[in-house]
Write a structure and sequence with these properties.
The structure holds two protein chains of two kinds.
Chain A: E1 8-14, H1 25-40, E2 49-52, H2 59-66, E3 73-74, H3 83-96, E4 102-110, H4 117-120, H5 128-133, H6 142-157, H7 161-176, H8 189-194, E5 197-200, E6 202-203, E7 212-220, H9 222-225, E8 233-241, H10 260-271, E9 280-282, H11 288-298, H12 306-310, H13 328-332, H14 338-349, E10 361-368, E11 372-380
Parallel strand pairs in A: 2-3, 2-4, 9-10
Antiparallel strand pairs in A: 1-7, 1-8, 4-7, 5-6, 8-11, 10-11
Chain B: H1 17-24, E1 29-33, E2 39-40, E3 55-59, E4 63-72, E5 86-92, E6 98-104, E7 116-125, E8 128-135
Parallel strand pairs in B: 6-8
Antiparallel strand pairs in B: 1-2, 1-3, 4-5, 4-7, 5-6, 7-8
Classes of the chains: A alpha/beta, B mainly beta.
Chain lengths: ~375, ~140
Amino acid sequence: MPLREAGAVTGVGETQYLRGTDRTALSFQLEASLAAIRDAGLKPTDIDGLIPYGHGAVAEDFITNFGIEDLRFSATTPMGGASAVAAIQCALAVIQAGICKHVLLSLGRIGYSGGRIGTRVQQMPQFKVIGEFEMPLGAIAPAQLYAPMVRRHMELYGTTSRQLAEIAVTTRYHASLQTNATMRTPITIEDHQSSRMISDPLRLLDCSLESDGGAAVVISAPDRARDMAKRPVMVMGVAEGHPDSPSAITQRPDLTTLGLAKAAPKAFAMAGVDRADIDVAEVYDCFTYIVMCQLEDLGFCKKGEGGPFVQDGALGLHGRLPVNTHGGLLSQAHMAGMNHIVELVRQLRGEAAAQVSNAEVGLVTGYGDMGDGAIAIMRRA
Amino acid sequence: MAAVYDKLVPSPTPETQPYWDGLNQGRLRLQRCADCGKIRHYPRPVCDACWSMNTDWVDAAGTGTVHSWTIAHYAFHPGLKGDLPYILLTVDLPEGVRMNAQARGVEASALRVGLPVVVRFERVKNDLTLPVFEADFCRVS
């Protein structure tokens, strides 16, 4: 049975996002979870399913802190930055199977105050292949591993750094409209062009933030969702997709195509909507280029046309496709995309800080582990 | 050769050790399916074409062409600070796989898709040799 409308997002929660803290990742994760549960009008003991982000709190932490007596399901969806959105598919499946009524997705991290990305990736099991064959050669951090994808796109299609800058500038402007964003000073294309080179062609302002904080989402069975505190947001379509050569970008037949290209057609078919129906899109943005590449893989434009597509403010609140209206990982905070789900729900409820007028249908994507992808399409109910 | 090598080093497994042994002997060796003959990289236990677990190794020609690249301007490991900036090439090998290695003696302005390169071997410590690529002037048009 397809998962169309098998669940609804009923609660969202975030902590204050920070760059610097003495707190633990666990305390952020639990605080955000409590906020999401409160937003749904539930008690912590109503949660009967858990899908925490892969590197953090485990089911035992939630049972112990929340006093849950009869947890019926726990799992992780280990897809790096695609984990949060992939967890939506997992939640819908266990709800439809009758196992759970209220599933909590959550993440807490001290990405700024704890170990930084160049150190963290060396310890992740999904990076063991490149840990042996690429890191000793000096290709260590995501910026260095992804930059050849960007260069290839530029060489094949004429994509420019100034086009990538458009994404950074628009995203920062959206962050400037938030109360809970860590980078709120608007930037210009020239600021982007003069920011220091990290791994050519990726400049500092092409890269996402390292952040401290937490975010969480509650997904409920549709029959329960109708009676909750807030207007529910129905999940219309959902899918995950894994790229060719998932553990080594170097060996991928087409460097410019991500796992999302496999997932997107399934999710749109399940949802029964087309690209033109999407009023707002929260697109995983670990790097500017990854946004552009996903817009192609989502089908908003053809492969290679992402550069022209994002130009001239097209991704702004009043543009042809408002993208990352919360400021994203580039300017709000790096919450591994859980904050993108939170923002999509707020947009579809009509309660976003930078609200797209009359947003009825939207999508959220995740991207991680060098190419894994996930997508959820939602509508206001 | 530096007195103390302070960069990341590989931790070979029994399945990958022949690759590293080959580099130490000045040979670029690639894993091949002993049943269907498909060459694969990086080394792994199973052939994705025929699912055989029988493997052997072949010497690569040592030539290739640039598929893409990046130039590192920031050191994500302290041992690399002194090497900045360095060019990392993604190279198409004629055997049908790719590999990643630093460039030597190649100007950034000369980089282009399709640039012919040839592998060289750099012994960085007693038991570790890394591949690098130089422009293949025999084939540069």
